[in-house]
């Protein structure tokens, strides 16, 4: 009797989650803005993509832990979670349910009807449904990677024929859920198995044209290299990666080192115009270069720098990542990647995660769709290089200039409207703003940031029409 009652309750909760996600998701399906640079909600309001890489959410967390994780991200201002549907072809979830029959993407292991699977729980796909719908109740979009790239490029991996069947399965199953974004690929060059990636993208677009689609590429590359002109590619994203300046020795094209703003510059010039964002910068708590765990680890200051650099260059948002959280590392777990030690439920409170909301708040605090990158605001000889690089963006009546190390910012005034400007300092570490003063909006002027010149003493100079 107790087991039957529990089953009824769980089924009711699952049905409730679906109802909430379908009927009461106020943002609606994500759309591209009229100027093709940014995102909007269904009713045309500006949407700043603030993502988190919860890559193993579907496979590692049970329902209770998924609730804990998603609620934390909602409270911290995140509105997109990037998740792998299939981390591997033999993947099982927290309840022991396999995603596939015989590790074949063309044969998802789906339990008939809405009853419990053979393990005494819902099947793998019901669990995915549950988390997607739970995210919807919290106003969160799920950027779903159908199958991670390593499973396609490996010997005997996913082929075109099976990929077509699998993409059709996904499109039919999730096309009616409003909080889905498709993220094709998965840490792989588009040129590697390009026919499979084009097949997945095309099928998703044909069967589910109302959801946005992008491609998650290999580190130090961008989706626009291979897919910018594909009809199915709604927006671009790039992976600026985890190496530092000294480690980035490749001589290949499209290599910009840590200067992730250069990827945005490249995409920004392409036609047709499409939004772009950094979907995987260096993760907080991960070693420089990933593999040598004796090296220094990326910090909150670094993830802030990547955020402001890419967004001010014209990015439509930014995805944060954390070493322990992206793999949902658990205490005592063997085989942790990249030297992860902290438990995911502790690492969700690392400082960088809490600080990400401030860039979202800043960008939405002024007219959003009119914003453009504009380096002419900064005196050309004073723009700096590498960690000293200054970057600027503006609207009609405002301008923002970011410095990672503090110091003096020399600006050309008169780039925004009004006879006078009100200058302020915005602190990316706590979101506080301090007024500097009011000045004539002409000529050049130097503004000295508070504190000593050093890595992580970052500030945004705000110039508003007075």
Automatic annotation (TrEMBL):
According to UniProt, the name of this protein is Collagenase-like protein with putative collagen-binding domain
Segments forming domain Putative collagen-binding: 372-464
- List the InterPro entries hit by this protein, alphabetically: Apiosidase-like_cat_dom, Collagen-bd_put, GH
Question: What are the entry keywords?
Answer: Signal
Organism, scientific name: Mucilaginibacter gracilis
Give the highest taxon in the source lineage.
Answer: Bacteria
Q: Which residues form the Apiosidase-like catalytic domain?
A: 33-370
The residues forming the signal peptide are: 1-22
Q: Which Pfam families match?
A: Apiosidase, Collagen_bind_2
- Which PANTHER family would you find in this protein's record? ENDOGLUCANASE, LMO1036 PROTEIN
């Amino acid at each position: 009797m107790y087991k039957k009652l529990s089953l009824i309750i769980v089924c009711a909760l699952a049905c409730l989650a679906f109802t909430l996600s379908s009927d009461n998701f106020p943002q609606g399906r994500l759309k591209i803005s009229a100027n093709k640079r940014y995102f909007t909600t269904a009713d045309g309001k500006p949407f700043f993509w603030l993502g988190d890489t919860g890559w193993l959410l579907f496979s590692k967390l049970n329902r209770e832990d998924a609730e804990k994780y998603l609620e934390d991200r909602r409270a911290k201002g995140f509105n997109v979670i990037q998740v792998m549907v299939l981390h591997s072809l033999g993947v099982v979830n927290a309840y022991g349910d396999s995603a596939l029959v015989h590790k074949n993407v063309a044969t998802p292991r789906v339990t008939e009807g809405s009853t419990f699977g053979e393990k005494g729980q819902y099947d793998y796909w019901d669990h995915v449904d549950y988390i997607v719908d739970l995210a919807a109740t919290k106003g969160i979009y799920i950027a779903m990677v159908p199958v991670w790239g390593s499973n396609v490029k490996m010997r005997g991996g996913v082929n075109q024929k099976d990929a077509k069947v699998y993409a059709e399965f996904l499109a039919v199953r999730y096309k009616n859920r409003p909080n889905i974004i498709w993220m094709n690929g998965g840490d792989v060059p588009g040129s590697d198995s390009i026919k499979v990636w084009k097949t997945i993208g095309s099928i998703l677009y044909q069967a589910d044209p109302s959801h946005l689609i992008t491609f998650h590429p290999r580190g130090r590359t961008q989706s626009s290299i291979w897919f910018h002109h594909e009809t199915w590619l709604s927006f671009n994203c790039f992976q600026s990666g985890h190496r530092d300046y000294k480690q980035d020795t490749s001589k290949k094209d499209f290599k910009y080192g840590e200067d992730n703003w250069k990827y945005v510059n490249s995409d920004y010039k392409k036609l047709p115009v499409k939004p772009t964002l950094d979907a995987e910068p260096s993760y907080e708590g991960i070693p420089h270069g990933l593999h040598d765990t004796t090296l220094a680890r990326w910090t909150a200051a670094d993830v802030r720098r990547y955020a402001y650099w890419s967004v001010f260059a014209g990015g439509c948002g930014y995805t944060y990542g954390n070493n322990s959280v992206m793999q949902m590392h658990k205490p005592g777990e063997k085989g942790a990647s990249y030297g992860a030690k902290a438990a995911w439920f502790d690492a969700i409170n690392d400082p960088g995660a809490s600080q990400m909301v401030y860039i979202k708040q800043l960008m939405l605090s002024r007219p959003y769709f009119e914003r453009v990158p504009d380096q002419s605001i900064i005196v050309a000889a004073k723009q700096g290089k590498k960690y000293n690089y200054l970057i600027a963006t503006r609207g009609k009546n405002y301008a923002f200039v970011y410095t990672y190390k503090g110091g003096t910012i020399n600006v050309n005034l008169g780039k925004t409207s009004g006879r006078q400007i009100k200058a302020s300092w915005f602190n990316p570490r706590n979101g506080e703003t301090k007024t500097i003063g009011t000045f004539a909006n002409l000529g050049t002027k130097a503004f000295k940031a508070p504190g000593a010149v050093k890595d992580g003493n970052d500030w945004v100079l705000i110039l508003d029409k007075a």
